[in-house]
Amino acid sequence: MMATRRELLLKLAAKVSNNQRATAAIATGLAARNGLIQRSSRSFSTAAQVDPPTATIVNKAAPADLASSLDQAKLEGETPKRSRVSDVTIQEVLKAKHTARWVEPVIPHNATVRDAIVTCISQNISGMMVVDRTDTMKRQQKCVGLITSRDLLRIMAASIKDGKSAEEILNQSVIQQMTPINQVIYGRPDETIGMCRAIMAKLGIKCLPILVDGRVEGIITARDMSEFYYDPKDLGGKKNYLTDVSERVGLSENTSMAEPPIFVRQHLASKHDPLFINVGTAEYPHPFKSHDGVGANRRDFGPDDLATDPSLSEDAHFVSTVEMLDESGTNMQKLLYMGVADGVGSWREYGVDPRDFSRMLMGECQNILRDASSECSATGGTACTMISPAELLARSYKRTKEANVIGSSTACVGVFDSVHHQLHFSNIGDSGIIVLRHIDSDVASALQRNRTTPRTERKSDLRIAFVSQQQLKSFNHPYQMGWTGEEVVDKNSSFKQASDSCTSSVHILRGDIIIMATDGLFDNVDIDDIASIALKWEQDNEFIDNGGIDTRRRRWESGSSLTDISAQCIPTLAEMLCQKARENSLDNTVDSPFALLAKENDIMWSGGMPDDCTVVAMHVVGKPANLNDV
Question: Which residues form a coiled coil (predicted)?
Fold first, then answer.
């Protein structure tokens, strides 16, 4: 029987309570709400609102500002128009929530996981602000982070995996496990339910603190927004039970799970077969770059040919295949690691070569993997397990810092687990990863289905299956890893640690195309155009016939993978993308993604954005290269 997250926490909370008695909690839009301290400390400190609101009672079925319009409509003999829930402001939702039941959604910074679980269950809340009460009065509790019920389950799952005892798990400090205050995503009271739902869906978060004049007025959840407009009489009583519940409660003893759809079964049938990746890389320097510096434009650069020497690029990358133990710690498996870094060019103004830091960071990633693989071979695989991308970045940064290499760069590092078909990655800044996948429109979900182009006019069913989240302090100001020669203590600094990276995993399917690149690609080539270029590459090499996947499926079923052709041609895809990025960066007649975003942020910019560009293109295949196709 499946247990919900709440049921799991309820059971654990009961055990915790018993123990206690025995022994006596589009790129700038997200950047603007990422980190409470960064947005509020300019003139005030962030604090939690602890006093119940004194607002008048709000009719949840019709907010105050809407009720007057409804009454006016009745007086005028018109049929009152029902307002869309998605258009209601979060301020109204928050008022209704606090009027119905006031709960202080906070937990002290010195609390334990045990305390957080009990608080979550006893107060029936999904998230809590972690507050520091050390040097402040109760009315001015300083917020230092956020922790949610989902975080608590993740803590327990990770700790169980690490072999920790129940007491060790429950006694962990909340402050070590919370989302730091400068990474908390927040909402504003004048934003609508629709807007907040979109933000929560895009970022995969379930709790949204609402910030008003530097104070957290409350925490909004998806449940709060769903329950808005429901009067208490609509949620209880005999009639509602008979209408909504009685016919739905209780499953028969013969209930079973349905078989997955046919297209899912086809995938599950091969899920135990390992997948392999063919990799190709390309690196173009800034077109106006020379050994003497960088030209601001073509006229400044002069009549010479555009730069093509990769050694001039401030980008860096690596690709390494190593053997390490899998997660079980018993079997050796091959792991493919890859990474890109974009050195910050403004260091040139201080006499620092921007290439040094990015190259050292990526080079040390490769050295660490090489050392770990050698250790595995020497010890027979008894002392080495898979290194996560975040850990790899942290180790590499430590070595770079110890070598006193001055500079900074964005960074994106990933690892492909061929057995579990998972791509794990950590990203800091505006480099990133996209996954392209052929999804048949007959089985695609409503959101993935192409509804803008008539089916008869579509060239393919190649879709954008995944786009990694970027991290920006503001427009054209990405977060980065860096070293100035001494530790930076400013909490508002652009420098971040590997632990602050956006870390995630993507399930990969055979036939997927994965693109990891620096911002030189994404600033100049729209993602849909990247997909079009990838499709052309597939068609040129006959991986796809006329944009369809039926021929490819039959070829796979017959045992033909075209792996060797893929391995030979994948560098061409990386080259095509870099070439397109350069072409667009020099075109002043068409606004690039960078220019469009600049104008949205009141910055006048037209055409492309000349920059270094590095692309790591990957094609997922069913056989390792150098095997003869059957």
Answer: none
The total of other beta-carbon atoms located within 10 Å of residue 84's CB is: 10
- Residue 427: both structure tokens together: 């990203």
Whole-number Å distance between alpha carbons of 280 and 566: 10
Q: Which residue is listed with tokens 């693109």?
A: 515
* Proportion of the chain above pLDDT 70, given as a percent: 78
Residues 1-39 have pLDDT tens digits of: 455 555 655 555 555 444 444 434 344 455 556 666 443
> Tokens 């203590």 map to which residue?
489
Task: Please list, in sequence order, all residues whose beta carbon lies within 8 angstroms of the beta carbon of residue 35, skipping any fewer than 6 positions away.
Answer: 181, 182, 183, 184
Question: Which whole-number Å values give the CA distances from 57 to 61, 62, 348, in the listed order?
Answer: 12, 12, 60
Q: What is the Cα–Cα distance from 630 to 627, expressed in whole angstroms?
A: 9
Q: Integer distance in angstroms from the first to the last C-alpha of the chain?
A: 44
The DSSP bridge pattern shows strands 47-48 and 215-221 to be parallel
Tell me the C-alpha distance between 501 and 610, whole Å.
Answer: 26
Handedness of CA 18, 206, 180, 203 (dihedral sign): positive
Residue 207 three-state SS: strand
282: left (phi over 0), alpha (psi -120 to 50) or beta: beta
Residues in CB range of 336: below 8 A, 6 or more apart: 277, 279, 319, 320, 321, 415, 416, 418
Model pTM? Answer: 0.74
Give the Cα separation of 357 and 409 in Å (integer): 7
Spatial contact of 50 and 104, defined as CB atoms under 8 Å apart: yes
SS3 track for 233-249: HHHCCHHHHHHHHCCCC
Contact at 8 Å (CB) between 345 and 377?
no
Contacts of 303 (CB under 8 A, 6+ apart): none
Query: 101-118, pLDDT tens digit by residue?
Result: 888 899 999 999 999 999
pLDDT for the residue numbered 37? 44
Cα–Cα distance for residue pair 437/514, rounded to 1 Å: 9
Of 472, 590, 578, the closest CA to residue 530 belongs to 578
Within 8 A by CB and 6+ apart from 291, the residues are 312
| pLDDT for res 595 | 94
**What sign for the dihedral angle of Cα 219, 221, 226, 232?**
negative
Please check whether residue 527 is in contact with residue 467, taking contact to mean a CB–CB distance below 8 angstroms. Answer: yes
Structure tokens at 202: 């895009």
Any bridge partners for residue 277, and if so which? 620
Phi, psi of 386 (to 5 degrees): -55, 130
Largest CA distance in the chain: 87
